[in-house]
């Protein structure tokens, strides 16, 4: 086998080993990487910044633990920013393995800012069939969610007295790892004209740029890079603190950088091998 | 971290390493971790669905005398007929209702959001006097050539065929972007796991240090 | 087959047969009743309306599109010749079957991990039937591991009919169509195992795939099989493109099933969508020219408020 064919047929376990070593070394010896903020993340941040005390922001949380790495950081950053600005949060979950994700964030962050359930935030809980739930919420939140996650009837919650449907929330932020984003765009924005921004995993990001361009969504936080940008902005304005280790996406950026460099090198090696062996064979 | 957290996180570390062993070869440790996650998530989903879907949407209304909910209950039971070769035709009624109503809701909105809105936002002014106008030209060319690629009523020959080739190049550039973002997504998951392992080892080291210093009172 | 009475005819509104108009009547009724339930925009005081005039453009375009679909389906049913170009991946299927015959190795067909309510799985079953017909003629084993129980029955039927059409019903082996598991990665592991043990000469992957797509495609690549894949799941297309010899991208999967089956509804829908695409291109070009000249009337008409 020629050298170029060997390059092309490199055992994938060597690739795994090299990437593993690079990731471990970068995790042990981190360094700062410069970060620039993209307009689509800036627009989400600016929108939350523009909210006044008492405004209601809805967050649709539709992800499970497998997407936690990318989406939890943006969830934490947005929640901290909102609570610091005394913005009220209305949260719901449309992913079956996601209720614990919301509970983890909201219980931790509400304690940090002394926020009270029912007055400063309401967690509606989980309901199956995202399309039907999103459509029903457009009529009245009480149709799919007569009670909140903790079993309290919505009508007995102080915050819910002024809220009927999407018309009473300033915007919806959908943080999602699945197909529910499509339903939020089609039904919440398409049917009810609710202002919508999304935070999605890296895999899904490229699918939603057309909706950003057509202004069906006003912001897009894409993957861990998007989360890192959001954390960078939030840290600059004091909503989160590096000292309290609240920048989990931002501190993963060195690992992203080094690993991507290695992946690009392997792609170049593989392509050189491909073209040279093709040239040799012809 | 308290003792409980150390123990629970130790299990998480063990399962993480079990999954990573697949990178070398399939083995019983990987199979165990995979079957565990599949079983736990299926069981968790079943319970969540029962308490968040079945109970509030069927049991509670029936208890309150709203007997109309019997109809969707029967439709739901009819779907179970799918498992019988002889009676599987019964499930078609429920499926027809479900697919029909879902399609009815979706068709107009998908046309509105995926076609009409996209079409109107793609009608952009073009020119060479600014970068924005020039990039609009690239968008229009990409959209038109990709649409031509997916045109099945004419053979891809001549000018039409060359334009379709531009379309497939546009698609491939898009796939490349998607591929790159997917790599970023997968690396994020790996990075988070490695950071978790690192932090657990640091916490464990500190815990063992305190354990030996203060005895088993922790 | 007993026909339902046409309500339009029953109402005495139209004197002749109106098979085309009956669906249109119900469609109009559906759209109007849907509009009844729709909310008016936030800035206008909320009250239920019979018709949302702000969405008239959506209504007109939908009616137009449905007319195209029904028209072409009718034409296809009447036996009109509707041209659909040959899709490159389909030639690759024949080539792969030929290669498998020469090597004396089996062919592996994977139909995705979604159920029969997913259109991609339906398209995959149609292609499976045609692959079975090709394979039957050459006496090559066709292995079909399936992810979901309901799909097994459909796959068995497709393969059996394919063999019967080729005049080789006795060659059909029911054990070759088997249910593995409904769990995504366990199914991928099972398929990988089949690839490594049986070493098929050709792998066909048509249907709806998710993260397991690269696992299977890469394993197939490592065994040296010729691979043809097709899916409408955009995230998985890059992986199929790099790991497979031919890939049917998105709508090509449905076009392939229409091309192979010549089913009037599939052909009619395909031709209608082609006409819609053609009109879209014309409108887009006109809109771009007008926008460049500063005329925004056309863009405004398409704008959904």
Q: Which characteristics define this entry?
A:
heterotrimer, A: 282 residues, alpha/beta, Rossmann fold, 2 domains, six-stranded parallel beta sheet, elongated, B: 218 residues, mainly alpha, 6 helices, 79% helix, flat
Set out the fold topology:
The complex is a heterotrimer of chains A (282), B (218) and C (305).
Chain A: H1 3-8, H2 12-28, H3 39-50, E1 56-62, H4 68-84, E2 88-93, H5 99-112, E3 121-126, H6 130-139, E4 171-176, H7 180-189, E5 196-200, H8 202-205, H9 209-213, E6 220-222, H10 223-236, H11 253-281
Parallel strand pairs in A: 1-2, 1-4, 2-3, 4-5, 5-6
Chain B: H1 3-20, H2 28-63, H3 70-79, H4 91-122, H5 131-149, H6 158-214
Chain C: H1 7-10, H2 21-37, H3 56-77, H4 88-103, E1 107-112, H5 119-138, E2 142-146, H6 149-165, E3 177-179, H7 184-198, E4 202-208, H8 212-222, E5 226-231, H9 237-243, E6 246-249, H10 251-261, H11 264-292, H12 297-302
Parallel strand pairs in C: 1-2, 1-4, 2-3, 4-5, 5-6
Structure description:
The complex is a heterotrimer of chains A (282), B (218) and C (305). Chain A is built from eleven helices and six strands. Chain A is α/β, with parallel strands linked by helices and 282 residues long. Chain A has a six-stranded parallel β-sheet, with helices on both faces. Chain A is elongated, with a radius of gyration of 22 Å. Chain B has a domain at 125-218. In chain B, 79% of the residues lie in helices and 0% in strands. The radius of gyration of chain B is 28 Å and the shape is flat. The model of chain B has no long low-confidence stretch (mean pLDDT 89). Chain C is an alpha/beta fold. Chain C has two domains: 7-82 and 265-302, no CATH class; 88-261, Rossmann fold (3-Layer(aba) Sandwich), CATH 3.40.50. Chain C has helices at 7-10, 21-37, 56-77, 88-103, 119-138, 149-165, 184-198, 212-222, 237-243, 251-261, 264-292, 297-302; strands at 107-112, 142-146, 177-179, 202-208, 226-231, 246-249. In chain C, strand 2 (142-146), helix 6 (149-165) and strand 3 form a beta-alpha-beta unit. The radius of gyration of chain C is 24 Å and the shape is elongated. Chains in contact: A-B, A-C, B-C. The A-C interface holds A 138, 167, 191-193, 203-204, 207 and C 38-39, 41-42, 46, 234-235.
